[in-house]
Specification:
The protein contains 7 helices and 7 strands; from the N terminus they run αβαβαβαβαβαββα. By secondary structure, the protein is of the alpha/beta class. It has a domain of 101 residues: Rossmann fold (3-Layer(aba) Sandwich), CATH 3.40.50. The radius of gyration is 17 Å and the shape is elongated. 23% of the residues are buried.
Length: 171
Amino acid sequence: MAPRGWQRRVERLALDLRPRFVADVMLGRLARWLRALGYDTAYVRDAPDRQLLGLALREDRRLLTRDVALARLARERGLLIRGDGLDDQLREVVRACRLAAPTLLTRCLECNVPLEPVARDAVRDRVPPYTFATQRAFRTCGGCGRVYWPGTHAAGILERLRPFLAASGRP
């Protein structure tokens, strides 16, 4: 049996090899849902095209855009998103990038930072009393400080993502 530390390093390496994205201003909602799927997805609201492309190149990210000219400029680094609705857009990205079984709800939906487990008592004053009384597992974002837990909102997100999980090979 392999040592536990070795397993963690292999898991981290696998996460490092997963595709990373940058979404243009027209795809903020898609960016949040890719984060919910566990994908590192940068979103810069007011960045000019050249800045987005530079970010994609510097950080080895796939540029998701609805702008035909920007997609053409980005060449193989870009992905033109044609769908109007969120489900169609997610389906396009899952297919085009061959996204595999994600690690769900492991990134902050707001700022994209990976979530870290936190001791329950550490969030006592940061969550509603009922939530603290009924939940056992909490995660926090080191970027913006938000606290997450597996409540009904998380269940709704998972239900919405179910078709994309099936497409990725995850039940």
